[in-house]
């Protein structure tokens, strides 16, 4: 497990105490790497106590991992929440204490990571030198930033940046509210790195600088110290905590087979084919010759049948177009079976236990041909794209690329390419947010439908729901 995880916390330059806590260790059974960053809130000492209580509760629950992973992580958050609520009752001065936290469990053997998150601590994934923000800040400013209404610089300087609306210690029972805690899982490939951090880092250091530090050649310990140093260099206005986890396995590679030259092909063919000997022209050989022509005769007969069928269908269509002609009944059109890529994408969405899905072009080879709409039937879903992932309309298909059901309350699509569809996305009741989407050769980009059966309806259609950037789309080059 050498250099696969490391954590570090620092008071910063303006605080006198540290209300942050972290976990960076291997699980007792050796199966997982546990990483967690906790940021206490609630005033002097109170936040520090809340963070310590949460850390202890999480470690106790994960001391003996059991059951499904996401429910286990949710249970650890619920136990932390209960521990903080109990502590608030014991000490009056701590009655406003709470904490925000992000917890990740990395299974490097199966190349997967799982996470739960509440508040404004963050989880990032570094893959192929690109840094992707996985979690969403559960605050008003975080929502504005994630939806593209604020850029990173404006969000970092916003006066309400640190006003959160969710935390451990705010709610009485988290086990009965699955929407309160953000959860998810994603591939954790060889070479990938997870960064968990408090807002003491992200309020001080922009994502580009964080990415540069993570991409240097230093070990995890040095990277952590460099991140903390960068935050302090830029002001160090809050406690700074970081935890890193790396999948240190080597990516498997296969040596490509060299093409065989023309001369070698001839030699290889000659070596593998039986020798041809002279056969006398006898009646037996003549019979063999007739037998060899049977496939040709069968092919000719099939071609004749196909030609006759085509002519008959043409005549029937001509009759159907005559005035007063009765339309001919046709069979139900044959629906093409879903190809492996689109079936995999639909199954991934249907089986997702959290509300964040990261699509990477290493898992979904672009383009993904779509012969039926990808259906989203979740209360909320955020689809992020890393690399060139393109949905391409299959030949003969005239429907939408993505269809949201009326059940959806909020769906965000980020950096996905949709090409060649009659309709890009079908949504209901304005449940859709788009960020850096690319639509090419689509008749209708977004079709929004409103449903309110049997109820009084008020309101109106806004003049502008989406806006189009002035920067033209640059097509991705296919590899």
UniProtKB/TrEMBL annotation:
TM ranges: 294-315
Residue ranges occupied by any PPM-type phosphatase domain in the UniProt entry: 5-247
Keywords for this protein: Membrane, Transmembrane, Transmembrane helix
Protein name, as recorded: Serine/threonine-protein phosphatase
Gene3D superfamilies the record matches: PPM-type phosphatase domain
Organism: Mucilaginibacter mali
Single GO MF descriptor: protein serine/threonine phosphatase activity
InterPro entries tied to this protein: PP2C, PPM-type-like_dom_sf, PPM-type_phosphatase-like_dom
SMART domains: PP2C_SIG, PP2Cc
Keyword Nucleotidyltransferase: no
